[in-house]
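FIELD: query
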Amino acid sequence: MKICGIDLKASDAIISVIEVNNGTSRYIPLNLKKISIQNDENKSEIESFYETFQTFLRDNSINKVVIKKRAKRGRFAGGSDTFKMEGIIQLNNQCDVCFTSAQAISSYKKNNTVTIPTDLLKYQEEAYLSALTGI
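FIELD: result
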């Protein structure tokens, strides 16, 4: 099973993929590390994000997507672009999408030994941890 963890920040969907076999997970390094929306008011940009994401899921045989939740209001609320991207991701017709919270990620790290792969970029860590909690 391949799980794609996603951390939505500003206008980027940051991606990390793991493969799970017999309860063991391994990080899969990919060339594509994030998908962005440059102008969320431009219909062709939204369509391009959707098509790029669909192609990514299909080409990498992703079975499940896990998105790290963001605050909906308050000081640390996610921006409008992140909620648009979330909706587009949920509309994919190839795999299930679920959510994980920062608390679930913290709990996972506390109860499991987590080794961050050396070829994982620093900004991908939350996406990687999101994928791990999706196991």
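FIELD: remark
Residues 2-133 form a domain with the Nucleotidyltransferase; domain 5 fold (CATH 3.30.420.10).
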